[in-house]
Amino acid sequence: QFVIVVVDSTDRERISVTKEELYKMLAHEASKSWDLKKAGLLIFANKQDVKECMTVAEISQFLKLTSIKDHQWHIQACCALTGEG
């Protein structure tokens, strides 16, 4: 099982909403309401073709992905228009 999160790499204002929702979901999962204990976390950093977008490293740092210890996670740069990533 995987939880998939798609991040708009150009939207610096709403990345905080993404972070808040991600950690709410993980906290909700911790309450055992969901059966996602072993689910991996896949984050797609979309719109990497746009100049001045956030890099994968910036998104990872902002979302504090290294603090997530209970789930394997991976962040992948991508572009939905070209199919890259």
Automatic annotation (TrEMBL):
Superkingdom of origin: Eukaryota
GO molecular function, one term: GTP binding
UniProt KW Nucleotide-binding keyword: yes
Pfam families registered for this protein in UniProt: Arf (PF00025)
Record has rRNA-binding as a keyword: no
Keywords: GTP-binding, Nucleotide-binding
Sites where the protein binds GTP: 46-49
Name listed for the protein in its UniProt record: ARL5A protein
